[in-house]
C-alpha cells in the first residue's frame, strides 16, 4: 500500500520516480512492520523450543531425583526386589510387584484390544459399505473420546461385579477387570490406526487377488494384512504403550496391594497407580519414598518411550511403498 | 494339459465360501462389540444418575452428605482450568506450528522439534503430572493452584494443538501466499493476514479437541495434589481448586463406603459427558461450516 501511495504523489508533483530507490528506502526505514518481520521468526522459534524444554524438563527432573533414589537403594535391589513396602521401619523398594502389575494389566488389555481392534479395522476397511463405515466410525471416535476416569468408574461399578458372577473368587479390587476395560479403551486406537494402514493398500492388489478367484477373506488375510503389516504392528505397539501409561482405570479398579503374583483375580498395583498413591499421601520431599516416585516414573517413561520409538521405527522401516 | 483341477476347486469352494462368510460375521460382531460396550456404559451411567441431577446438584457446594452434595465448585474449577489452558496452548501450539510450517528450514532442527512433539504426545499423562509437581507446584512454589494445574495441562495437550494447527496451515494453498507476496506483503504480514485466517477453522477444531482432552484428564491433577475436599469456590487463578474428574475419582473410590457416592459420581459423569458432547458438536460445526476447500 505504502509504495503505491508514494508513487502517485510523486507523479502528481512531476518528479522522476526511481522505483528501485524507493524499495531500498522502504527496506532501510524502521517501521513496526520491518521490526516485526525481523522479530517474529525469533519469537516463534522461542515458542517452538518450549516443547523441547518440556522434554528436557521431564528428563531432568526424573533423572536428578532417580539418581538421588539410587543413592539410598541399590540399583540391583530395585530391579530384582520382589517386595515393595515403602512405609514402615524396614522399607523395601523392589519394583517387580509394580512391573508385573503393569505388564499383566497391559497383557490383558492387549488380549482384548488386538483381536477386536484388528477385526474392527478389517470390517471397516474391507467389508463395510461407505454408508456403514460413515455410521460406525463416529461411534469409535466417541469411544476414544470418553475420559479414562469414566472407564475407571465403569470397571469398578459394573465390570467387576459382572465378572464376580462368573469368577466367584474375584476380589473387589483386581487386575482382571481394569485390564479388560483398558483393552476396550484401546480398541478404537488399534482399529483406526490399523484401518488407516489397510486403506492405504492400493485397490489394484485386491482386484488382482479377487480376479484370481480368492474370496474376500483370502484377499484380506493373504494380501491386505501382509501389505499393511507394518502399520498394524505399529498400532499394536502404540496400544501397549498406551496401556502401560494408563493410570486412572487401574488406580480405581485394582487397588493398592503390592502383591507379587500372577493371579489375575488379585489386587495388584501398577507403576502408574503407585505414583498416584504416593503423591496422594503427601510424601515428604527428600525422603526415599519421595525419590522412589521418580525412579518408578523413570522406569515407566523409559518403557513407553522405547515402545513409541519402536512403533515409529517399524512403520518407517517396514513400510511397503506402492 | 489341464492347469486347473476343476473337481478339486469345486470340492473346496463350499468350505472356502463358508469360512469367508464366517469371517465376515465375526468381523461385524467385533465391530458391534465396541458399540454394545458404549451403549451399556452410557446406559449404566445415566440410569445410576437418575434422580440425582437437578438444579441443587449443580448449584450446591461439596458436602459429605450425599443428599446435599453438589458440584458447583468442580464445575467452576473446570472452567477456571480451561481459562488457563486455552490461551496458553493456543499461543504455544499455534506459535510452534507456524514456526515449523512457515519459518523452519527443512533440516536437523525442524525434524528434531517434530520428532520431539511426536514423542511428547506418547508420554503418559502421569509423567506430566510429576513434571508439574516438581516444576510448578514445588519449583516455583505455586502450590496446588489453578495456574499450576493449568500450565501442566497446557503442556500435556500441546502436541494435539501443534499437530492440528500444522495440518491446517499446510492445507492453505501456496497460491494464496504467493498472491500476498505479489501484492508486496512481507512474510509475517502474509502469515497474519492470509495464512492464519484461512487456517483458523482447523486450528480451532484442534484447540477444542485438546480442551476436551484436558477436561477429562485426571491423573496429572491427582499427582500435583488436588485435595479431596475443597469447599470454597475459586475466584482467581491463584486459588486452590477441584475439577469434575477429581470429584468423580474421589466419589468412585469412596462408593465402597457410602453407596450413594456412586450415584453422585454417575451424575457428575453425565454432566462431564454432556459438556464433552457439546464441545465436540461445536468442533464438528466449525469443521463443516467454516472449513473452506481450496
TrEMBL record, chain A:
<dbReference type="InterPro" id="IPR011864">
    <property type="entry name" value="Phosphate_PstC"/>
</dbReference>
<comment type="function">
    <text>Part of the binding-protein-dependent transport system for phosphate; probably responsible for the translocation of the substrate across the membrane.</text>
</comment>
<feature type="transmembrane region" description="Helical">
    <location>
        <begin position="289"/>
        <end position="311"/>
    </location>
</feature>
<keyword id="KW-0592">Phosphate transport</keyword>
<feature type="transmembrane region" description="Helical">
    <location>
        <begin position="175"/>
        <end position="198"/>
    </location>
</feature>
<feature type="transmembrane region" description="Helical">
    <location>
        <begin position="103"/>
        <end position="124"/>
    </location>
</feature>
<dbReference type="InterPro" id="IPR035906">
    <property type="entry name" value="MetI-like_sf"/>
</dbReference>
<keyword id="KW-0813">Transport</keyword>
<feature type="transmembrane region" description="Helical">
    <location>
        <begin position="219"/>
        <end position="240"/>
    </location>
</feature>
<feature type="domain" description="ABC transmembrane type-1">
    <location>
        <begin position="99"/>
        <end position="311"/>
    </location>
</feature>
<feature type="transmembrane region" description="Helical">
    <location>
        <begin position="43"/>
        <end position="63"/>
    </location>
</feature>
<feature type="transmembrane region" description="Helical">
    <location>
        <begin position="144"/>
        <end position="163"/>
    </location>
</feature>
<keyword id="KW-0614">Plasmid</keyword>
<dbReference type="InterPro" id="IPR000515">
    <property type="entry name" value="MetI-like"/>
</dbReference>
<comment type="similarity">
    <text>Belongs to the binding-protein-dependent transport system permease family. CysTW subfamily.</text>
</comment>
<keyword id="KW-0472">Membrane</keyword>
<protein>
    <recommendedName>
        <fullName>Phosphate transport system permease protein</fullName>
    </recommendedName>
</protein>
<keyword id="KW-1003">Cell membrane</keyword>
<keyword id="KW-0812">Transmembrane</keyword>
<keyword id="KW-1133">Transmembrane helix</keyword>
<dbReference type="Pfam" id="PF00528">
    <property type="entry name" value="BPD_transp_1"/>
</dbReference>
UniProtKB/TrEMBL annotation, chain B:
<feature type="transmembrane region" description="Helical">
    <location>
        <begin position="264"/>
        <end position="286"/>
    </location>
</feature>
<protein>
    <recommendedName>
        <fullName>Phosphate transport system permease protein PstA</fullName>
    </recommendedName>
</protein>
<keyword id="KW-0812">Transmembrane</keyword>
<keyword id="KW-0614">Plasmid</keyword>
<keyword id="KW-1003">Cell membrane</keyword>
<feature type="transmembrane region" description="Helical">
    <location>
        <begin position="71"/>
        <end position="100"/>
    </location>
</feature>
<feature type="transmembrane region" description="Helical">
    <location>
        <begin position="112"/>
        <end position="136"/>
    </location>
</feature>
<feature type="transmembrane region" description="Helical">
    <location>
        <begin position="142"/>
        <end position="164"/>
    </location>
</feature>
<keyword id="KW-0813">Transport</keyword>
<keyword id="KW-1133">Transmembrane helix</keyword>
<feature type="transmembrane region" description="Helical">
    <location>
        <begin position="194"/>
        <end position="215"/>
    </location>
</feature>
<dbReference type="InterPro" id="IPR005672">
    <property type="entry name" value="Phosphate_PstA"/>
</dbReference>
<comment type="similarity">
    <text>Belongs to the binding-protein-dependent transport system permease family. CysTW subfamily.</text>
</comment>
<feature type="domain" description="ABC transmembrane type-1">
    <location>
        <begin position="75"/>
        <end position="283"/>
    </location>
</feature>
<dbReference type="Pfam" id="PF00528">
    <property type="entry name" value="BPD_transp_1"/>
</dbReference>
<keyword id="KW-0472">Membrane</keyword>
<dbReference type="InterPro" id="IPR035906">
    <property type="entry name" value="MetI-like_sf"/>
</dbReference>
<dbReference type="InterPro" id="IPR000515">
    <property type="entry name" value="MetI-like"/>
</dbReference>
Amino acid at each position: 500500500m505504502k509504495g503505491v501511495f508514494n508513487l502517485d504523489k510523486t507523479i502528481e508533483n512531476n518528479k522522476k520516480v526511481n522505483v528501485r530507490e524507493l524499495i531500498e528506502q522502504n527496506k532501510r526505514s524502521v517501521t513496526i512492520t520491518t521490526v516485526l518481520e525481523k522479530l517474529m521468526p525469533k519469537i516463534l522459534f522461542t515458542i517452538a523450543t518450549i516443547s523441547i524444554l518440556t522434554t528436557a524438563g521431564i528428563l531432568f527432573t526424573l533423572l536428578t531425583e532417580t539418581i538421588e533414589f539410587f543413592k539410598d537403594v541399590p540399583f540391583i535391589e530395585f530391579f530384582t526386589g520382589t517386595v515393595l513396602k515403602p512405609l514402615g521401619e524396614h522399607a523395601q523398594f523392589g519394583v517387580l510387584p509394580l512391573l508385573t502389575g503393569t505388564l499383566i494389566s497391559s497383557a490383558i488389555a492387549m488380549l482384548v484390544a488386538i483381536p477386536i481392534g484388528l477385526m474392527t479395522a478389517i470390517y471397516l476397511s474391507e467389508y463395510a459399505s461407505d454408508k456403514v463405515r460413515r455410521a460406525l466410525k463416529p461411534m469409535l471416535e466417541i469411544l476414544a473420546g470418553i475420559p479414562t476416569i469414566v472407564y475407571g468408574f465403569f470397571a469398578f461399578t459394573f465390570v467387576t461385579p459382572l465378572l464376580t458372577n462368573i469368577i466367584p473368587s474375584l476380589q473387589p479390587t483386581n487386575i482382571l477387570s481394569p485390564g479388560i476395560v483398558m483393552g476396550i479403551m484401546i480398541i478404537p486406537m488399534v482399529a483406526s490406526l490399523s484401518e488407516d494402514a489397510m486403506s492405504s493398500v492400493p485397490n489394484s492388489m485386491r482386484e488382482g487377488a479377487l480376479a484370481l478367484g480368492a474370496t474376500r477373506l483370502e484377499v484380506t488375510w493373504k494380501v491386505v494384512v501382509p501389505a499393511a503389516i507394518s502399520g498394524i504392528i505399529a498400532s499394536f505397539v502404540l496400544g501397549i504403550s498406551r496401556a502401560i501409561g494408563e493410570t486412572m482405570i487401574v488406580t480405581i479398579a485394582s487397588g493398592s496391594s503390592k502383591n507379587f503374583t500372577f493371579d489375575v483375580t488379585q489386587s495388584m498395583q501398577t507403576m502408574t497407580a503407585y505414583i498416584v498413591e504416593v503423591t496422594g499421601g503427601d510424601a515428604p520431599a527428600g525422603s526415599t519414598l519421595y525419590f522412589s516416585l521418580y525412579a518408578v516414573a523413570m522406569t515407566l517413561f523409559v518403557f513407553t518411550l522405547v515402545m513409541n520409538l519402536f512403533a515409529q521405527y517399524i512403520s518407517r522401516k517396514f513400510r511397503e511403498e506402492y | 494339459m489341464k492347469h486347473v483341477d476343476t473337481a478339486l476347486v469345486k470340492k473346496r469352494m463350499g468350505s472356502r465360501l463358508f469360512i469367508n462368510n464366517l469371517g465376515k460375521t465375526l468381523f461385524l460382531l467385533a465391530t458391534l462389540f465396541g458399540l454394545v460396550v458404549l451403549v451399556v456404559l452410557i446406559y449404566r451411567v445415566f440410569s445410576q444418575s437418575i434422580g440425582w441431577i437437578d438444579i441443587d446438584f449443580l448449584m450446591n457446594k461439596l458436602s459429605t452428605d450425599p443428599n446435599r452434595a453438589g458440584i458447583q465448585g468442580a464445575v467452576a474449577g473446570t472452567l477456571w482450568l480451561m481459562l488457563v489452558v486455552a490461551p496458553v496452548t493456543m499461543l504455544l501450539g499455534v506459535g510452534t506450528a507456524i514456526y515449523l510450517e512457515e519459518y523452519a528450514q527443512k533440516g536437523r532442527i525442524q525434524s528434531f522439534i517434530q520428532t520431539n512433539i511426536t514423542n511428547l504426545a506418547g508420554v503418559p499423562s502421569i509423567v506430566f503430572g510429576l513434571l508439574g509437581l516438581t516444576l510448578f507446584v514445588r519449583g516455583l512454589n505455586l502450590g496446588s493452584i489453578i495456574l499450576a494445574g493449568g500450565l501442566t495441562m497446557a503442556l500435556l495437550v500441546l502436541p494435539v494443538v501443534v499437530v492440528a494447527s500444522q495440518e491446517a496451515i499446510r492445507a492453505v494453498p501456496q497460491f494464496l501466499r504467493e498472491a500476498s507476496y505479489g501484492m508486496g506483503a512481507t512474510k509475517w504480514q502474509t502469515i497474519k493476514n492470509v495464512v492464519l485466517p484461512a487456517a483458523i477453522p482447523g486450528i480451532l477444531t484442534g484447540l477444542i479437541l485438546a480442551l476436551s482432552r484436558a477436561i477429562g484428564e485426571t491423573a496429572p491433577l491427582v499427582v500435583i495434589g488436588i485435595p479431596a475436599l475443597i469447599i470454597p469456590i475459586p475466584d482467581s487463578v491463584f486459588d486452590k481448586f477441584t475439577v469434575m474428574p477429581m470429584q468423580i475419582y474421589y466419589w468412585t473410590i469412596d462408593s465402597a463406603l457410602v453407596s450413594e457416592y456412586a450415584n453422585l459420581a454417575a451424575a457428575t459423569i453425565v454432566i462431564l459427558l454432556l459438556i464433552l458432547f457439546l464441545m465436540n458438536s461445536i468442533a464438528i460445526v466449525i469443521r463443516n461450516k467454516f472449513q473452506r476447500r481450496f
